[in-house]
Design goal:
hypothetical protein PF0899 fold, four-stranded mixed beta sheet, 3 helices
């Protein structure tokens, strides 16, 4: 069995509701009210749009500023960590590698100097003055490579990178320690400056 569904009608006033009051306005006043309502709504819409745009720009500016700050901190942190990690390497270069390079370069440097002056030796004799620790290396070099009368003389005041060639009345100084010291100083200066900048 089918039943008809009855729905309440909202288009007509209910007998339970308030009585309907009708106000008659002239057409001109009604148009003016509609126009004023339209203008007010239009103005409010633009005001809301401008306010939202300002808030959006402000938020974007704040986000950009924070992002740039984060990037700067990230760069400074990364730089500080890299330089801190390289500090043992810098120390190793200065304390171990440079002295080893000087020791390796000393004999070839002495050989180059001797090759240059061997033809000009007045009496065919020459003396090499060097640190006692480097004398055995120089003596081996002299025994294997030099055919002239050459004497190696130890001098405790000499550093391992300092050798003097004395032939006749002339002296030639080979001082690799000076170059090594300049390189070490440059490395230390870079390391100290970089550390100071990351501490700021």
């Amino acid at each position: 069995m089918e039943r008809a569904l009855r729905l309440e009608e909202f288009g007509t006033p209910s007998s339970k509701g308030l009585s309907e009051v009708k106000v008659e306005l002239p057409d001109a006043d009604l148009e003016a009210l509609k126009l004023d309502a339209f203008k007010e709504g239009y103005r409010n819409g633009w005001d809301d749009c401008i306010t939202a745009e300002k808030q959006n720009r402000s938020r974007i500016g704040e986000d950009l500023s924070q992002t740039l700050k984060n990037l700067t901190l990230t760069y400074d942190d990364a730089r500080a960590q890299v330089l801190t990690a390289f500090q043992p390497l810098f120390n190793g270069i200065v304390e171990q590698m440079l002295p080893a390079i000087v020791a390796e370069a000393l004999v070839p440097t002495v050989r180059a100097e001797l090759d240059e002056i061997l033809g000009d030796l007045p009496d065919g004799s020459c003396e090499l003055i060097a640190a006692p620790s480097i004398c055995p290396t120089l003596e081996t070099f002299v025994a294997n490579s030099v055919s002239v009368d050459l004497t190696v003389l130890p001098d405790a005041s000499y550093s391992e990178g300092h050798v003097t060639l004395r032939f006749g009345t002339e002296l030639r100084e080979i001082n690799l320690d000076a170059a090594s010291a300049r390189i070490a100083e440059a490395i230390r200066d870079f390391s100290d400056t970089a550390t100071d900048q990351t501490d700021i």
